[in-house]
Amino acid sequence: MRVPHATAYGMALGYLGDLLTGDPRRGHPVAGFGRAASALERRLWRDHRAAGALYTALCAGGTAALAALLARRAGRAGAPALTAATAWAVLGGTGLAREARAVGAALAAGDTDRARELLPRLCGRDPAALDERALARAVVESVAENTSDAVVGALVWGAAAGVPGLAAFRAVNTLDAMVGHRSPRHRNFGWASARLDDLAGWPGARLTAALAAAAGPDPRGALRAWRADGHRHPSPNAGPVEAAFAGALGVRLGGTLSYGGRVEHRPVLNAGGRPVEVADIERAVALSRRVGALALVVCCAARAAGERLTGERVTGEGRR
Question: For residue 277, what are the domain limits?
Fold first, then answer.
């Protein structure tokens, strides 16, 4: 039995599941993938790009192949349930909002030490030397970037390739977080994972930036900042997203930060904006939620339209 628009319905159900329950504290499938990927890294690691490329291919390709096998076994009747379960597992909008608000609550209560303790759950930068405004800026930047990585990008690939697209995108994004940073150990080994993540994240990042402009309080400011500053960020995907969020919220992002003891001086995004304040964390979370909901509508509509077009084409060819 064919279920019309099974992928679109499944993604909507998975999004609703994430909205209502968020990520489980234990037993999350993505955490299981991370443990398996770490075990494989210990076996394959060499300070060479070729070794990293093999590692990336095995992890990402193996995930896509397994997801495709499960989708085939589920069949058309089981497609909505499998898509819903996969979408719930890979989407992280509720967890993102929860962690951002936790840091914001600590800052609002004047407990900067607690905010520094919570920040690593949200992003990888060193919190020790960050003051209140720097912590708030880090949260807003992380909310912006992860709206693309944890929500919109997954929906885009789900619309394009169903269950394998959802699972493979999350695998690629997780690999980038694990080995894609430029530490001495991963500068060469993680190169392939980082480049693949750039490629996979490209469409979702542009859709995120566009939706941030559409859903934000200052659409013109978002578009202006995206156009002027998006390309100046070292990440081809984080740049447009963070710039659009900065312009939409009227704040200034970017500047000096530290990752793993390595100091980076990033360009300022939306230089005409004001410094980030604690209250902007909730504004960023609200914008992220609106962007995620709009992305769901866009991606489900695109998938349903594609399925309808394909079905009409097959029917027409059959009649001939």
Answer: 6-319
Global pTM value: 0.93
Q: Give the pair of three-digit tokens for residue 259.
A: 């990752």
Enumerate long-range contacts of 280-284, CB under 8 Å, 24 or more apart: 280/136, 280/140, 280/249, 280/251, 281/100, 281/101, 281/103, 281/104, 281/107, 281/136, 281/139, 281/140, 281/143, 282/101, 282/104, 283/249, 284/100, 284/139, 284/140, 284/143, 284/144, 284/245, 284/249
The predicted-structure confidence for 249-288, as pLDDT tens digits, reads as follows 999 999 877 665 566 778 999 999 999 999 999 999 999 9
In a domain, 92, yes or no: yes
- Residue count of the chain: 320
Phi, psi for 27 (deg, rounded to 5):
75, 20
- Using DSSP's 3-state secondary structure scheme, residue 270 falls into coil
Q: Identity (one letter) of the amino acid at 102?
A: A
**1 lies in a domain?**
no
Confidence band, pLDDT 50/70/90 cuts, at residue 244: very high
Q: How many domains does the chain have?
A: 1
Judge contact between 158 and 87, C-beta under 8 A. Answer: yes
